[in-house]
Amino acid sequence: MAERTDDTKPQISLAEYSPVKKSKRTGRSRKQDGDQDTLQLKKEISLINGISLIVGNMIGSGIFVSPKGVLIYSKSYGLSLIIWAVGGIFSVFGALCYAELGTTITKSGASYAYILESFGSFIAFIRLWTSLLIVEPTSQAIIAITFANYIVQPFFPSCDPPYVACRLIAAACECLLTFINCAYVKWGTRVQDIFTYAKVLALIAIIIAGIVQICQGHTGHFKNSFEGSSIDIGEISLALYSALFSYSGWDTLNYVTEEIKNPERNLPLAIAVSMPIVTIIYIMTNIAYYTVLDSHAVLASDAVAVTFADRVFGIFSWTIPIAVAFSCFGGLNASILASSRLFFVGSREGHLPDLLSMIHIKRFTPVPALLFNCFMTLIYLAVEDVFKLINYFSFSYWFFVGLSIAGQLYLRWKEPDRPRPLKLSLAFPIIFCICTIFLVVVPLYSDFINSVIGIGIALSGIPFFFLGVYLPASRRPQFINKFMGAVTRNIQLLCYCVLTEMDPNEEKKPEIKSN
User: Fold this and answer.
1) Which residues, including other chains, have CB under 8 Å from residue 105's CB and lie 6 or more apart?
2) Which contiguous run of DSSP H or E holds residue 295?
3) What is the pLDDT of residues 280-338, one digit of tens each?
């Protein structure tokens, strides 16, 4: 870790070792600014790639496996569909706010970068620490395990698949996708495109089957569809919370802002296209499920899409488990791409060791950050109760999302004349922040113990912030400097990487600040 200030370029704090910042190789991503010669990530993510990243990360295994979370608490088909629609609208509000933030603060890193810009280093570090320690590796481990379960399940139709086999396949999946993203950014985006198309086609097949059933007169489950609806505010809140969890992932593209072609145009456009697609698919898929399955069947099923396929697709029902596996594979790829950029930006800002902000001098990919992300996920794959860890960050997730959009309001007040290619009505961030307060309070009310544990995990980063960021390098224990210097040197030689900084052209964009 290195000490940084807002007015200086990132500097290496290790007196024992100064990594080479310049490469003799020229290429499209090499920028020149007078005597300064730096290497940046290449802008290779197109509009279509951006849409695939957002849709691919939002549509995970949940809509196939367990969309029953909303139904459990709403207690009726009619109210559950309304909650799915409300969740979609709320997510659109958040995504539009992130579109403005992403075109105003043109850094990768999503909420980490926005909190850093608005509220400073400490809170941004805590957000980064939470993601590094539990959010990202736990999420990826669970997605990889779900993928492995659905790949192995056909070979063990009458019993649970072997624990070790599933964990090994999950680890192999994580390593394969890490290799693909290390090789070339284009390889990662192509994998994302292919598997996003596959999962969307599978959901379209389910929707069409549901429409056919409706046209054939199978509408009995929708009679008195609001009968028995819950009127308890707490249960409705939990139903909405479940829906919003399924919509999470709309901020994926903001993690790779610096790699988007023409981000001022393509970032908001990708968000504007993706959000209606996902919202419509979610609502129509649930209508299809409800057409074929009654409420008892939905709530009793461990994989609703598989139960639906067994009743409707006949001999082709095997296609849905494969679609679930494809969905997990694509979602894991998007998560790896996004989280590695988060660690990359955190390192570049001085909140993580310098080695994580290095990129390969020929492939222009953040290889050390990708390998670090893979290493953390493999550690959590060795934890038997990894699924329980997901409960610890519900509180912190919505807290930091809400804080980043509160930062949007703060920057509107502090820097009213700052260039904003996209400028929303203040109603959007205000409404979203008010609703986020509600979403932060719900976990404290419904799952107090896990929320407190999540808060404790976040606060455990304070000593590391003091030692690695706040404390000057000269006052840190010298063995830490020597150790990090040796590690940085060896990783640089092993991965053939150099340090990178922000594109000088991006840094020179005019910013007119208020007095």
Assistant:
1) 113, 114, 117
2) helix 295-300
3) 999 999 999 999 888 888 888 877 888 888 888 888 888 888 888 888 999 999 999 99
